[in-house]
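Below is the data:
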Amino acid sequence: MARLHLFDLDGTLLHGSTAPLEISRQIGLEAETVAIEQAISAGRIGPPEYAAQVYALWTDLTEAHVAAAFAGAPWLSGIEDVWAEIRGQGDYCAVVSLSPSFFVERLTEWGAHAAYGSRFPALPFTEPVDPAGILSAAAKVQIADRLCEEFGVKRADCIAYGDSLSDRDLFEALPVSVAINADQHLASLATHSYAGLDLWEAYELVRRAV
């Protein structure tokens, strides 16, 4: 039976950072984005409010900024190697993130079968952000179920990789999970835990167990 590996992005594949933070760094608005991220981490705002606030910062954002942010981001090492191995085993890998889809979807070029993020308007922005397109922790489970149907696997055949409360629902829904550089709350829910900078080492925890 094939397996489906589901990866979070912010704080998981990206070490110590998020896609919005890397994007904002390109236009000199890093500090403003840190403040917004602190607000959502503390529960003072939810994903729709977060999206609206970063959208308001990104009035001058271009595809070139996003490309530079992606290229310069602090990625874990070994991502492409892990996904090549997963594909070679006949399994599937996908990224599901609350970050903007225009950043997340670039990971299909690295070997992800699918990549889902919050839907923002096309760049440069000429339309408002639609709250209905902004993902939540619960939406990650819904997307996982859709991917299971698409790839012909069951929840029992899924492995989740994440680092924070936005991954909690997925960790609770799936039988196998890997906390990567995670906060203590999520680590306590995970079947495996990893601290480090190499995705291959985190993947090995699952590969050895299976």
